Amino acid sequence: xxxxxxxxxxxxxxxxxxxxxxxxxxxxxxxxxxxxxxxxxxxxxxxxxxxxxxxxxxxxxxxxxxxxxxxxxxxxxxxxxxxxxxxxxxxxxxxxxxxxxxxxxxxxxxxxxxxxxxxxxxxxxxxxxxxxxxxxxxxxxxxxxxxxxxxxxxxxxxxxxxxxxxxxxxxxxxxxxxxxxxxxxxxxxxxxxxxxxxxxxxxxxxxxxxxxxxxxxxxxxxxxxxxxxxxxxxxxxxxxxxxxxxxxxxxxxxxxxxxxxxxxxxxxxxxxxxxxxxxxxxxxxxxxxxxxxxxxxxxxxxxxxxxxxxxxxxxxxxxxxxxxxxxxxxxxxxxxxxxxxxxxxxxxxxxxxxxxx
Length: 357
Hints:
Blueprint: H1 59-80, H2 94-106, H3 117-123, E1 131-135, H4 138-141, H5 151-156, H6 165-172, H7 177-183, E2 197-201, E3 214-218, E4 223-227, E5 233-238, E6 253-260, E7 264-266, E8 281-283, E9 294-298, E10 304-306, E11 323-324, H8 327-336, E12 342-347, E13 350-351
Parallel strand pairs: 3-12, 10-11
Antiparallel strand pairs: 1-2, 3-4, 4-5, 6-9, 6-12, 7-8, 9-10, 12-13
């Protein structure tokens, strides 16, 4: 997504500048050690049924359930420590292993991407509850409404809300809609109603928000990495980037401003695929705004880090050129950074811009 101006073209409906106390000294990025392919966390063995008694379900089903719950807990624990495994889906795949390796490196452990006893201890997995109950309220229903796809109709709307209660609970669980279905067998998740109680991933509020000294945007891995004043990696998020390298931001870069719930300025020249519109349009705020719930404006004209109306597509599709993240991740990132902070742009082994503080 490429809004074509820095501050004046991004009108703010409900916005706030998020400031963090200045850091002293300089910062250098430390890349994670070379990762090797590893297998997902091993499945926990199930307890044998007592002799002569029937089990409630086949042993294979119990084993699969235990593995699913352990992998869901692992993803949630990593996110809680600011190392995102991607959108929560209960499957500890490549992104989960990369997040675990980065977390291990940040703790001074060998970055294997494998779940060992010390990593489990650092993550607080012992006793971690992977799910919680969530009852839908009138407030949740008020977050749902019409969300037109036509650009002119969007500009005439009051807001860009969630399209369904399923989108609301997926946002609350930081997860895929498919996971909501898996956690709630027997419930038609496409027909949810006020007063209904669901099982959601147990997303925990972080104990604290770390203070960043700089950001590294790593295009090859599609990651946003956050470091502190010592150069230590303290957070990792996944993102989508432009497919074409020439469409990605280049050069020295800083954060100009931060806006929560921004109004997006649609400009026809930025959207050549949209026909029949010859004037700028103002798109109201909301979770389905083209730039989501937060816009972090970069000093390179027309570029920013922002949210998305389609969180399940992060890392799978390209953007118009900006750095696109899930709404919950970009809001968390916004709490860590501040205007004036330098950003390093990295493509593989090539560092396009260097962080300076």
